[in-house]
Amino acid sequence: MTDGTPHRPAGAHARHGGPAPHDTHERAETEPAVPEPAGPRALLDALWPPRVTRSQLLAAALLFALGLGLAIQVRAASSEETALRNARPEDLVRILSDLDDRTARLEDERARLEEQRTDLETSSDQAEEARRQTRERESQLGVLAGTVAAEGPGITLRIGDPRGAVEADMLLDAVQELRAAGAEAIQINDVRIVADTSFVDENGGVRIDGQPVGAPYLVSAIGRPQDLEPALNIPGGVVQSLENEGVGVIVDRPETVLVGALRSAEQPDYAQSSP
To answer: Where is the composition biased (Basic and acidic residues) (predicted)?
Structure first.
């Protein structure tokens, strides 16, 4: 006997309703997990921890040295530009004159070398001409090496230092300025200055090539006085720097400058002159 309600077969709810709980669990176990993006993780694994090779360290050191050198060069150029900008017109004229003199010296040196080459090529006795030039060159190298005395035109620089303000680098600056201006022979007190001369501060004084040198410092330089003196007096140069330290400086142009301090000639251990 029916009550008017539609007859629903058994199990209809299981077929048309939601899945049974045990069916959901089994389906979750069988579905594969979605993997995380591999790109960021792989990039992080490649970058950390950092793996630095020896070549990379060497390249970094070279780049650092290059950057430091460029920074120092830019700073030096900036300071020189500032000094020139603040210089008086007469100082600028003197600097330009000094540059012109250096250019003239280089041109003279080139002309002299070309003349020597021409003499060798045109001389009737080329062997004798070669020997003459060799003796002349030997004498010049002896002056540069400090093994022979020299005299000629030049300047003297007297540096009074009652307070002990002069240091080794100040004397070295004076020597470098004189060399750049064409000085051929230099002597400080009784010490001959050559290419490998050392300047060291020691016990409140200065040692040059291991010899103690005290004030007053007398610098004798042979060369063209009209080139040497302006090189020392340029704005921000040797004389001005020393005077800023309260040091008295006197530059003189005697008729003849004598550089008589000598250095012993060093004999090579292995090299021998070939016949």
So the answer is: 128-138
User: What would you measure as the largest C-alpha separation in the chain, in angstroms?
Assistant: 153
- pLDDT 10s digits, 32-61: 555 555 566 766 666 666 666 777 778 888
**Contact criterion met (CB below 8 Å) for 141 and 184:** no
**Per the confidence metrics, is the pTM higher than 0.90?**
no
CA 154 – CA 221 distance, rounded (Å):
6
pLDDT at 153: 94
| Helix then strand then coil, % of the chain, to nearest 5 | 50, 15, 35
As assigned by CATH, the class of the 150-259 domain is alpha beta
Segments of 46-180 assigned E as strands? 150-152, 154-160
- Structure-token pair, residue 208: 């040059």
128-145 pLDDT per residue, tens:
767 777 777 777 777 778
Domain boundaries defined on the chain: 53-86, 150-259
Burial of 247 (0-12, 13-18, 19+ CB in 10 A): buried
DSSP conformational letter for 204: T
Residues 6+ apart with CB under 8 A from 168: 199, 200, 201, 206, 207
Report the candidate in 132, 154, 168 with the shortest Cα–Cα distance to residue 232: 154
> Is the backbone of residue 114 left (phi > 0), alpha (psi -120 to 50) or beta?
alpha
Q: How far is CA 119 from CA 110, 123, 247, in A?
A: 14, 5, 50
